[in-house]
Design goal:
By secondary structure, this protein is an alpha+beta fold. The protein is about 30% helix and about 25% strand.
Length: about 110
C-alpha cells in the first residue's frame, strides 16, 4: 500500500543555515508551523494545502531569516525568494499561497 498523498498548493522552505539560525530562523519555522496548524493550512489538515520544510542554506546569509516559496500557477511554476523574514510576513506569504493570491512584494528578491 503506497503512502497517503496530500494535495498541496505550495511549498515554503525556511533556511536553517547557521547565519539564518543566528537571526532566528529556527523560531520562525516553529512559529510558522504552529500557525499553519492552528489555521488548518497545513497540507494534512482538512482544507489545508501548504507544506513547510526546513532547508539548508538558501544563499542570502547576511539577510536572514530567508524563506523560499514554490507553487504551481496557471502560467507554470512560480518561485519567490524572501530575505529578512519575520513571522507576520511569513504568515502573509503562507496565506497568499494557500488562497492562490499574489505574493507579498515586501522583502522579496531575485527573479520575479
Amino acid at each position: 500500500m503506497p503512502p497517503q498523498y496530500f494535495k498541496t498548493s505550495g511549498h515554503l522552505l525556511v533556511c536553517q543555515g547557521p547565519n539564518c539560525q543566528a537571526r532566528g530562523s529556527a523560531l520562525l519555522h516553529k512559529a510558522l508551523w504552529n500557525h499553519l496548524e492552528r489555521q488548518s493550512l497545513a497540507y494534512y489538515k482538512r482544507g489545508g494545502s501548504l507544506r513547510l520544510t526546513e532547508s539548508g542554506c538558501l544563499g542570502s546569509c547576511s539577510f536572514g531569516p530567508s524563506l523560499c516559496v514554490y507553487r504551481h500557477t496557471a502560467s507554470g511554476l512560480e518561485e519567490a525568494w524572501y530575505a529578512t523574514v519575520d513571522f507576520p510576513l511569513a504568515a502573509r506569504i503562507a496565506q497568499a499561497v494557500h488562497e492562490g493570491q499574489e505574493l507579498p512584494a515586501e522583502h522579496q528578491y531575485g527573479p520575479t
